[in-house]
Structures are given as structure tokens and as C-alpha cells.
Amino acid sequence: MSETQDRLYELLPVYVRQQDVEAGEPLRGLLRIISEQVDVVERDIGQLYENWFIETCEDWVVPYIADLIGYKPAPEAGEPGDVSSAEGRLRNRILLSRQEIGNTIHYRRRKGTLALLEVLSRDLAGWPARAVEFGRLLAVTQSLHHLRTDRGRSIDLRAGDALSLLGSPFDLLTHTIDVRRANSSHSSGRYNPGSIGLFVFRLKSYSVTRSEAHCMEEGDNAGEHCFTFSPIGNNTQLFSDAMPPASQSCFSEEHALPSPIRRRAFGERIVSSRQSMVSAAYYGEGKSLAIWPGKDAAQPIPREAVIPADLSNWRYVPPARYVAVDPVLGRICFHPGDEPPDVIVSYHYGFSDDLGGGEYARPATSTVGERIYSIASGGTEIQGNVRKVLEQWKRDSPDRAVIEITDSQTYDENNLSIVLRPKQSLEIRAVDGARPVIRIFDIESGRAEALSISGDGGSCIFDGILVTGRGTRIVGGVSEIVFRHCTLVPGWGLHPDCKPRHAGEPSIVLRNSSARLRIEHSIIGGIKTEEPQRENEPLNITISDSVVDAMDAKSKAMWDHNSAASWVTLKILRSTVFGQIRTHAIELAENCIFDGILTVARRQRGCVRFCYVPPGSKTPRRYNCQPDTASSKAGSGSIAESGVIPIFSNTRYGNPYYCQLAENCSSAIRQGADDGSEMGVFHDLFYPQRLSSVAARLSEYVPASCQVDISFVS
């Protein structure tokens, strides 16, 4: 019996309960019903108390508390959403920030202070920022009565570190006056007495903990002593581990912001010994990066043995017993002959959002009734590689099972095969705080896809995994396949410059399959169908908050092996597609960017709304799509005249700015979604609303004599 159900019954005297038992316990049943209603009333009373506080109140109460203190959302950011819907609540986190409302009175007391601007950016938009008074950087004539020897000095051409910071948020050099206003919409200027700059860092810094570095034998001068931090072998700009300032009155320093690590900032010169070593602010266990000489090494390589260097073309070779590190390219170089058999690294990389495989926290899934297999050190049942655990799973054949990978190591596997029986469920996932890499290769059959999922019924889920080396083949009557927070590296792998190794090869092949395919918060290459059963209903593929990357607009992102339209009914939401899609039908396409031609065979059903669809596409009826809407408003059908095309900061997977819309991209795309956010995979970040909220609050807290320029650093 539940204690909650019988708590009223237990308050009765013992002799009453004995009589009730003799009568068949009718009183117990009645009090259980009353207890349920008592619980409802008590929860309601408790929630009424919680609704007095902004931190614990329900979503519908937030506007009332805001109105109580005279807080009003920025009208430029749009109207708050409906709290009854998940999308509305997500939008309101930006428009009605609980943190900002709770700190409003504190902000008003600090009005006019420079450090407040950084706090506003962090609390309103979640963007770390650096505030700078440009008037303090002007070249001035010193007063003999009030000397300020640290201001207005001539530039020292020997100060290499200071020169590398020119124009950055940490620029300390002297500038001549610029008469243009900082907030001018035509041509902004920075350096005048009334100008303030707020440098915003949009990219987030993500960790990779104790991962295996990739040995580089490709390229001139490379060899077994050359490694990359990235486990798939591409150059990776290392980022600092962002740490908020200890006090709201302190300004953010370079190493405490999610910014790219510069070579000069990474090294610090010890004048007494004329030796260059890495900065203690960046290197070390628990900091931005660290290197271990082997999997069993307890301590990282000492800071004194690490040399900051430019490892372009691998020309620099460190002395014996030293290791060179290039934070801009993410490269490591040992002295030939000194390299350990395994190099383990921890580092941070930059990206816009929680997308693809990563160590960020993901929504928890239920494990009730599931058998759990663990991989890597610390596993409770089985320790070993993925193939070994799959063989054990096949022998046990449980109805529901989870294979958990508990570290961020790289697992080299050959021809993995998963065979599901009817109603059997298997989930392969990474635990929170881990980003395992499964590198698949095929040395036996010559098949292009070395990860095979087949069976008659059953479902398979991949969660938090990065897969490289080969594609995935889905065969037969598998019921459902889900890729959640996964990365299936486009092109199967990357060259050092992030170019795909096998451009045009699909990440997923559906061969004679009837499986439902769901892709959520993931990055994948193309999707190919082979030998579809056209006498049956089309395959159902649902893609949400993801990137489908065929590498360029003319390549195939979804197609059939005979060049016909794939036998698929597609539903795609808040996603970005690089490449052409040819499909049987589209149920719904919403808030998406299609960079290549979209061709739909059955156009009598479905809808495409609030999307960018290139000219020449053949789709079902469209609603508020670009560039159609812009061209009709301009009175011209020419896309060149409308000027509405998606412009990305970068379109290569592996770059920190991958899929991010550029600042000069048209506002019809940057604010073209149904709720005023941007189209594409980063819709739920609500960049336009965040920027509008920050700009509106800055005008409220900054003196009227000053102008504020908001600049995006990353």
C-alpha cells in the first residue's frame, strides 16, 4: 500500500481500522478517494506560494510579476508567445527572461556603469560579452597637471601581442578620433568620446574530455609524431573554457570568454630564462586544454614541456622531450621518436548550439525494464569495444536494452551488424558528459555502408554518438530508426581543411526497407533509398532541428538509386539542407532553408511554409516562403533583384561557424520564421529576439549622451 494513499486512514484509531477490515475495508477505499483530492488541494496551495517568486512561479505568472515592478518587454523583439505551447514557452524565455525580471531593480541601481552592459547581455540573451569605452583609447595630448601615462601613447611596433589584438574587444592601442556615430545605420565609427562597444560572443564553448588524438600521416612533413586534437583528423580551432567573472563588477578577460585561443595568448614568455611556455590560464587539467602521454597516464604533460607554435605544414619540430601545440589549427607535434603510442587530449571547441554528438546535457530517457550494457572503464557489466558488447547483446537477446558508452574515446569497428527481432528495442547512447566516436571501416565485403541495421520489426535508437568512416545501411522490415543528437560525418570523414573525404556518399541508405526514420538535433550527410517497395506506402522520414549536408547545392541530399524521386513522405521542421532533395511527397516543411532544388513528385498534398525554397523548385502549395514573397513585394520575379538568398558564415562541417547565418544575410531569412526567428537549424536560438532585447535594454540603461555599438565577435 502506498503511504500517500493511506495517510488519512493511518490517522484513525486502531480499533476503527480493525472494524473496517472485518467489514471488507470500505472506509479505506473512501479515504483513498478523499486523499487524492486532498493532495490536489495541497499541491495547489503549495503552487500558490511558489507563484510569489519569479524563480519558481508558473509561466503564466511571469508577466504579472513583471508588470508589478514596471518591467515591459522590448516591443522590437515581438510579442510574447502562448504559454500553453512548448514553442511559446521557449520564445518567452528570451522575451520574458526570469533572470532579468528578478534583477531589474538591481539593474536600475547600477544604471550608467560599464560592467552592467556585460551583465545585461549575459542575463537577457545568454551571450557573454565584453564592454569597452572607446573614448579611453583616443590619442590625446597629455596635461602636465594630470598625467595619464597609460593612455594616448604611440603604438609600440615591438608589442606583437598588443598588435594582434588590434580591432578586437581587448584592443589597448591608441586610435585617432572617428567622428561617425557608433550606432549609425549607414557607416558606424568607434573611436570618439561618446562611443561604447559591446562585443558579443555568440558561439558556445563545448568540452571534449580525455579523447584520443588523431595521428596525422597525411600531408607534407607529417608523420607518426604529428597529431590533431580532433579525433577525425581535421584542423580545429581551440576555444577557451568560458568562466563567468567572479563578481558582476569585474570585466570579462580573454581567457574567461568563449573565444578562439590565439597563438600569442596561448604562450607567455619568461623573460628571465628567455623561454616560451604555455599560459597557465589555458593549459592544465580542468582548464581549456590538456595532453596526456598515453591512456594510463595519471598526469598531463607538464606545462613547462609544452611549446606554443605555428604548425602550418608541420614545418616546426620541437626539441627532444618537448611537445609543440598550435591552438589555431588544433595540432600537436612531438619530437620524432618521442611520441607516445596513444595521445589523450581534453580541449574545447566552438559551436552555435547543442547539435550533433557532444558532451552537453541531453534530455533523459527512461530505462525502466531495460537491460543496460556499459562500455569503457567503469562499466558495470561489460568492458570492451562496441562489437564485443553487441555480440553479448545478441546472445542475451533481451526485449529492451541500452548500450551506454561512458567516455569520449574513439572506437575502431569493422562491419557492425545489428539484427532486430519483432518488438525488440535497442538504444546505443552516450552518457551525459561523454562524446564517443565510432569509426567504422570495411575490410571484408567491400560494401560502402559498414554499419548495418536489419530485422523483421524492432527499433533502434542512437543518442549522442559521432559516427565516421562509413555510412549506415537500414535493410528490411525494421519498424523505426532514430538518430538523436548524433553526428554522421558528412562525406564519411574530413581532410585537414574540413573538405569531405568522400563527397557525394550518403550517410544513410534505406535498402528495401519500410522503417520509419527520425532525425532529431543531428548532423548527417545525404539519405539514399534503394529498391523501395513501391507497392506499399512510402517511407516516413521526419527531420527536425537538424542539418542534412550533401556538401553543396548541386549534390544530392535525398534521392533514389535510379535517379528517380525517393519513395519517401518527408516531414522536415527547423532544419537546414545543403543539396537537392527529390522525394515522393512532403507532409510539412516549416521554418527550413533548402540550399538546393527541392523537387516533389506528388504536389497535391502537403504544405511548405516559412521556408527558403530556391527558384526552380517544384513543391506543394507554399505559404510565406522566400524568395517568392520578397519578389512579389518588389514587383519582380527575379531573385537577383529581390536579394533574398541565404548567406552562411561557413558551410563546412568542422568549422565553428558551420551553418550560422551571416550578419549580411537578408532579414527576410534572419527573421523569416513563423514566430519572427530565423529560418533553419538554429531557429530555436531566437537570435533576432535576443538582439532586439539587448539593444532595447541598453538604450534604457546607457546615458543619452552615449551611443552603443553591438558587434558579434563569434
List the helices and strands and how they pair.
Layout: H1 14-22, H2 26-50, H3 62-68, H4 86-95, H5 98-109, H6 115-125, E1 129-133, H7 160-164, E2 195-200, E3 204-212, E4 214-215, E5 226-228, H8 263-266, E6 267-270, E7 275-278, E8 290-292, E9 306-308, E10 323-326, E11 331-334, E12 344-351, E13 371-375, H9 386-396, E14 400-405, E15 410-414, E16 416-420, E17 425-430, E18 437-441, E19 451-455, E20 459-463, E21 466-468, E22 472-475, E23 480-484, E24 487-488, E25 506-511, E26 516-520, E27 523-524, E28 526-530, E29 539-544, E30 547-549, E31 556-560, E32 566-573, E33 576-578, E34 580-590, E35 593-594, E36 598-600, E37 607-609, E38 622-623, H10 628-634, H11 639-642, H12 667-670, H13 687-701, E39 707-712
Parallel strand pairs: 2-39, 9-10, 13-14, 14-17, 15-18, 16-19, 17-20, 18-21, 19-22, 20-23, 21-24, 22-25, 23-26, 25-28, 26-29, 27-30, 28-31, 29-32, 30-33, 31-34, 32-34, 33-35, 34-36, 34-37, 37-38
Antiparallel strand pairs: 1-2, 3-12, 4-5, 5-11, 6-7, 8-12, 10-11
* Low-pLDDT ranges: 270-274, 378-383
Number of strands: 39
Mean pLDDT: 86
Radius of gyration: 29 Å
Structural class: alpha/beta
Major sheet attributes = 18 strands, parallel
Backbone shape: globular
Give the helix proportion (percent range). 10-25%
DSSP helical segment count: 13
Oligomer: single chain
